[in-house]
Design brief:
5 strands; two-stranded antiparallel sheet; flat
Length: 69
């Protein structure tokens, strides 16, 4: 059985409002990226910014993904 590729989509921090949350930082990505990955047969995973992460965390994350956008 073939395994679907897991594709990380890097997000960015933007202030956003929804529901009772007003002007709070959120990790965002245009949803069309998720749709394009899924339409191509992949599994999309949104990757939030991690400025506090060291190189080891980045390497571990990348080792679990098949690709990154």
């Amino acid at each position: 059985m073939d395994r679907r590729p897991v594709i990380g989509i890097t997000a960015y921090v933007e202030r956003a409002s929804w529901g009772r949350w007003v002007d709070v930082p959120g990790a965002l990505v245009p949803y069309r990226y998720v749709g394009h990955v899924e339409d191509a047969g992949g599994i999309a995973v949104v990757v939030p910014p991690r400025p506090d992460a060291d190189d080891g965390v980045a390497r571990e994350l990348l080792s679990r993904l098949d690709g990154v956008i």
